[in-house]
Amino acid sequence: MSGNILIVDDNPDNLRVLEQILTADGHKVRAAVNGEIALRSVGARQPDLILLDIMMPGMDGFEVCRRLKGDPSTAGIPVLFISALSETGDKLMAFEAGGVDYVTKPFAEQEVLARVRSHLGLAATRKKLLRANRELNREIKARKAAEERYRTIFDQCAEGIMIIDPVSMGFVEFNTIAHSRLGYSRAEFAALTLFDIIEGLTEE
Fold this sequence. Notes:
Blueprint: E1 4-8, H1 12-24, E2 28-32, H2 35-44, E3 49-52, H3 61-70, E4 79-83, H4 88-97, E5 101-104, H5 109-156, E6 162-164, E7 171-174, H6 176-181, H7 186-190, H8 194-203
Parallel strand pairs: 1-2, 1-3, 3-4, 4-5
Antiparallel strand pairs: 6-7
């Protein structure tokens, strides 16, 4: 699966090597040499994945990641840290900042590609689920609106309407005019059957 990838690293050699590896694998790649440029680049056009170095002049990678995750519009972009820092504490800080993975430099080409492909696939699945969820919510709202329109028309009809269960002969649905014309409250009418109504009319 190909994707749009942003590489953030202040080392030109690292940028060049990563760009060559990822471009050869079919990805569209752009680069940023520091955190400030990276945030502006993301604001202009969001990537599918960010490869982020930690040790950079000015804003470090941890802060870049925290800012991305703190903004609802960019929080969903997966951030994969690639850094020479190999201590467990550094890796924990990366994950606490919001990173999804961590690759230690010097990196192996196949490891980078495997992790990039994996996270692009996960991100694509997440986007599909979000789209499906939005579509489901729209459908639910549309159905609720249609049901409310139906209810309004049904209840305000000038003629009495009753829907009867053929087995119990109870009233499944009925409008206001149906029970009020016969002198029952809604609760009273709901507890009756068609036989009860007929019997009551006969007695009168």
